[in-house]
Amino acid sequence: MSLLEICQWLQDTQFGTSLRESIWMFPIVEGTHVMALSLSVGTLLWMDLRLTGTFMKTQPMSKVSSSVLPWTLAGFAIMTITGLLLFWCQAVKAYNSIFFKMKVAMLFLAALNAIAYHSTIYLRMDEWDKAIPPPRRARWAGWCSIVLWIGIIICGRTMAYNF
Amino acid sequence: MYYLFPFFKWCDNTWIAQTIRGSKYIFPVVEAIHLLGLTVLLGVMVIMSLRLFGFILRHESTRDVATDLRPYAWTSIGTMLVTGYLLFASEALKCYDSPSFRFKMVCLILALVFQFTVYHKATTSDKADSSPGFARITAILALVLWFGVGLGGRAIGFL
């Protein structure tokens, strides 16, 4: 089976069809996906801005990180669940959308950025916890994350259009 | 609300509204900026509410957290109002008939009034830190009103 055939099969499943054609479920899932932006990217943003050294400079990085991160992760859990449901019921539309492909590519890069940060400079945080500006790699991780998430939000919204 | 109809009609007829309708790209671009503004504004409200509840950043006063967040709050509210007006003007007659739009506007007016009065007082004085009950009620109302605005906005596309 090609990728397109898998997408077609997925959205033709009984679950995919009923979700797509439902009067209330689809708007609720999509509305939740949009509102959960506040909890996911809306809270991650403050950690990223602290990493860049432009925000909450009086607070140690570890405090900002440990305060915000559990809420951010809860937000991303909601985003993943609602995002997969939205993909499930319109997989072919997503397959044909250049914006969806860009979104997935940027999600992949954002994940790599997070892994790179957490496996290197994050482990040595006690050395730069209160340093303003934070080390260059931390600032880079923060800016890359902000730029990627702006791109992901724009591509997600623009998936609704066929130019 | 029929007496507001001429205003909606006037908005629909303005040059800027016609320009947005006549372009394939302006609406999606403005809409994407509106969504980025939503992320920042609701992000501010989530962090402030968590602080007002005393869940996070407890070692820093509510006033200090609010001071750090204030530029982002004002910038995002300004961005939302400008891009929101442009989106509205380009389909003002559709909005006139939309129950979701009416719900959104009621929430928006209440949210803005609340923001400039109770919320402002709670985040510029020490009252929130000395009175946890007041802080929690402020947080709940701010969340309900701003998320009401967001949900109402998303619902314009559906009903």
Structure commentary:
The complex is a heterodimer of chains A (163) and B (159). Chain A has helices at 3-12, 14-21, 25-35, 41-52, 61-89, 91-96, 98-119, 125-128, 136-158. Chain A is elongated and about 55 Å long. The longest helix of chain A has 29 residues, at 61-89. The mean pLDDT of chain A is 94. Chain A is built from nine helices and no strands. Chain B is mainly α and 159 residues long. Chain B starts with a helix and ends with a helix. The A-B interface holds A 27, 30-31, 34-35, 37-39, 41-43, 45-46, 55-56, 58-59, 63-64, 67-68, 71, 150, 153-154, 157-158, 161, 163 and B 24-25, 28, 31-32, 35-36, 38-40, 42-47, 50, 56-57, 59-60, 64, 68, 147, 150-151, 154-155, 158.
Fold topology:
The complex is a heterodimer of chains A (163) and B (159).
Chain A: H1 3-12, H2 14-21, H3 25-35, H4 41-52, H5 61-89, H6 91-96, H7 98-119, H8 125-128, H9 136-158
Chain B: H1 5-13, H2 15-22, H3 26-53, H4 62-90, H5 92-96, H6 99-124, H7 127-130, H8 132-156
Overall pLDDT confidence of chain B: 94
Query: Which oligomeric form is depicted?
Result: heterodimer
**Topology pattern of chain A, helix = H, strand = E:** HHHHHHHHH
> How many strand units of chain A?
0
| Gyration radius of chain A, rounded | 18 Å
Tell me briefly what this model is.
The complex is a heterodimer of chains A (163) and B (159). Chain A contains nine helices and no strands.
Features:
heterodimer; A: mainly alpha; 0% strand; elongated; B: 159 residues; mainly alpha; 84% helix
